[in-house]
Design brief:
Blueprint (H helix, E strand, L loop, with lengths): L1 E6 L3 E7 L5 E8 L8 H15 L2 H4 L4 E6 L4 E4 L21 H4 L15 H8 L10 E4 H10 L4 E3 L30 E3 L4 E4 L2 H7 L6 E3 L2 E2 H9 L6 E6 L3 E7 L11 E5 L2 E8 L3 H7 L2 H8 L40 H25 L7 E5 L6 H11 L3 E3 L5 H17 L1
Parallel strand pairs: 1-4, 4-10, 4-11, 7-8, 12-16, 16-17
Antiparallel strand pairs: 1-2, 2-3, 5-6, 9-10, 12-13, 13-15, 14-15
Length: 419
């Protein structure tokens, strides 16, 4: 049996699967307000709570574990793995002030040239007083894995991409040396590769096999992609969550920092994509979940709303339009809620379609099918509207839980998990 663990923004989840991919157990831990002030303690509590929640007899059969964390959530640790300062979360943009330092050093269009990349966060952390106590720079999934296997400073090439790791050459690039980073960057391995056995004290306490292996992890979005069932070039996954995230499997690598587009290595393929600021958060500004369900059912998908919006919560868009000052366009607003929601859903579908068009214009494989994950996947009317604009079949992901993707990674490793 195989355990996948997902650390998201609102909580942590665990899924145990059998060798046929069948789900045997699901466990959850919701983060509370105290997590905002003591993140690492909260993560550690969540991790061991998930282990505790799994049936003791089931734990005895688990032979591999893999963890995913949010991309570019990072922290500094001392020589024995204790955090020396608070972590920086995936969306923390304080490192943006360090982008100027990277100009002339980093290749054009590199994914580290982002306000929230792991590398700009590290450069910003290097200016902090706490940096003098630091020995290791780790991603969230790296540190959580360390808590289980006890080997400090090991990462995977999905998490390490935004640190500057060269995922084609499978090594850190020469230009990184020019930044004179004085602490240990993680050693990088293939996602899903075994790192080490579960610590004996943990195995004994929780009744795991002594030879249970902890594997290199991945990011939350790639774990969700693995869970979807998409496995060949031209297949894509759209995540309809608070924002709109697109990922397209391609034989060609596409990177364009202007639009926040970057590609993860995916065995012999590339997972390329971008994220728009539109999405479910805008819908929830106007409708409750119950209203969305009821009103969606009254929409006539065979007719156009005639409305052309750019639904945003606040000014600023990154993909498929790169304009930090792009204003929300939500007018004219009809009195009829059905017409208004129809216009919002159509407009988001146009943005999604334009996103995939841009990826293809930049060299990605032709889109052939879209799997849908996230809360919006349940809205069948939205799926019909999206199908019209995308011009390809739109289907629900086989499984929408990132923890399930991590369990597949634990079971098969990355290359097999793709197939």
């Amino acid at each position: 049996m195989y355990l996948g663990i997902d650390f998201g923004t609102s909580g942590a989840r665990g899924i145990v699967i059998g060798s046929a991919g069948n789900i045997l157990a699901e466990v959850r831990f919701a983060f509370n307000v105290s997590c905002e002030t003591d993140l690492t303690n909260c993560w550690q509590t969540a991790l061991f709570s998930l282990l505790e929640q799994i049936n003791r007899e089931l734990r005895r059969e688990i032979t591999r574990i893999a963890i995913n964390g949010t991309s570019s959530t990072v922290l500094l640790c001392d020589a024995v793995g204790n955090p020396v300062d608070v972590p920086l979360l995936y969306n923390d943009a304080r490192g943006a002030v360090m982008q100027e330092k990277l100009k002339g050093i980093v290749p054009a269009n590199h994914t580290v040239l982002s306000a929230t990349s792991s590398l700009v966060k590290l450069l910003w952390m290097m200016e902090l007083p706490s940096f003098t106590k630091a020995k290791y720079f780790l991603h969230q999934a790296d540190w959580l894995g360390f808590l289980l296997h006890g080997k400090l400073g090991i990462s995977d090439y999905h998490n390490a991409l935004k640190l500057g790791y060269d995922v084609e050459a499978l090594q850190y690039p020469e230009w990184l040396n020019k930044l004179q980073i004085s602490i240990h960057l993680p050693k990088v391995t293939i996602p899903g590769n075994p790192v080490g056995e579960l610590r004996s004290d943990i195995a004994n306490k929780y009744n795991f096999p002594k030879n249970c292996l902890v594997c290199a992890g991945t990011t939350d979005s790639i774990a969700a992609f693995l869970a979807s069932g998409a496995n060949s070039p031209g297949l894509a996954v759209t995540s309809l969550g608070s924002t709109l995230v697109l990922k397209l499997l391609s034989r060609t690598r596409v990177d364009n920092s202007q639009y926040g587009i970057y590609s993860h290595r995916f065995g012999n393929l590339w997972l390329t994509g971008g994220a728009s600021n539109t999405g479910g958060a805008v819908l929830k500004q106007f409708f409750s979940n119950e209203e969305l369900e009821k009103i969606s059912g009254e929409i006539n998908v065979k007719k156009s709303s005639g409305l052309d919006y750019y639904p945003l919560l606040k000014p600023g868009e990154r993909f498929p339009i790169n304009n930090p000052n792009l204003p929300p366009q939500l007018e004219p607003r009809p009195d009829n809620s059905v017409e208004f929601l129809h216009g919002l859903l159509e407009s988001m579908a146009r943005i999604e379609a334009r996103g995939y068009e841009l990826l293809q214009e930049l060299g990605a494989d032709k889109l052939t099918r879209v799997y849908t994950a996230g809360g919006g996947a349940k809205n069948l009317v939205w799926s019909e509207i999206r199908k019209h604009y995308l011009g390809v079949p739109v289907v629900s992901s086989i499984n929408t839980e990132a923890a399930y993707g991590s369990a597949l990674l634990a079971m098969k490793g990355l290359k097999s998990a793709e197939m």
